[in-house]
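Help needed: design a sequence for this.
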């Protein structure tokens, strides 16, 4: 529905141009190929902003993706093309993404996709979801997420570290200040 709005000008146009400049067609294509691998849709995986907007704007493909990762996480997918029903689908996907563990700073807002304000944040969210996919038995994209690796040290091991003098405290090896005259008069 972004065709109803007036074109931006001034600071708003500059800000929108800066947001749009961060969009990466390669990342968008990778995300669409991953979605196709899981859901069988879409046929066209071009990273073009128009293409990703057309495939994702009603939210049904996003809901289908979430339900493939964990069946039944989105109970009701709105098939209607009415604006509020589509935005409800997008919001349901975002709630599912939170459940999957996507950090809040990597989520997008519904209007970012529906009004095509920030497709880059949509791609970032889908990449974050792609990293979480391996935890749900699905193929993932991007780098593997680090896992927690807690270690337990005994009291003896912790005390052993107190006897070591760190290099941050300095060293008496290498260059030194011998030959410097601090406080001494200069002889001419």
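Sure. Designed sequence:
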């Amino acid at each position: 529905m972004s065709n109803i709005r007036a074109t931006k000008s001034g600071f708003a146009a500059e800000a929108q141009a800066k947001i749009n400049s961060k969009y990466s067609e390669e990342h968008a294509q990778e995300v669409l190929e991953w979605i196709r691998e899981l859901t069988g849709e879409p046929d066209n995986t071009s990273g073009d902003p128009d293409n990703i907007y057309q495939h994702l704007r009603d939210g049904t493909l996003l809901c289908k993706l979430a339900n493939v990762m964990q069946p039944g996480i989105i109970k009701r997918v709105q098939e209607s093309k009415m604006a509020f029903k589509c935005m409800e689908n997008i919001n349901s996907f975002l709630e599912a993404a939170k459940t999957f563990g996507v950090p809040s700073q990597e989520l997008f807002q519904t209007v970012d996709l529906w009004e095509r304000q920030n497709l880059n944040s949509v791609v970032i969210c889908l990449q974050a979801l792609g990293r979480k996919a391996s935890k749900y038995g699905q193929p993932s994209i991007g780098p593997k997420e680090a896992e927690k690796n807690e270690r337990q040290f005994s009291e003896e091991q912790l005390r052993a570290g107190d006897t070591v003098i760190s290099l941050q405290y300095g060293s008496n090896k290498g260059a030194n200040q011998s030959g410097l005259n601090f406080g001494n008069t200069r002889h001419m």
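Residues 155 and 161 are 10 Å apart (CA to CA).
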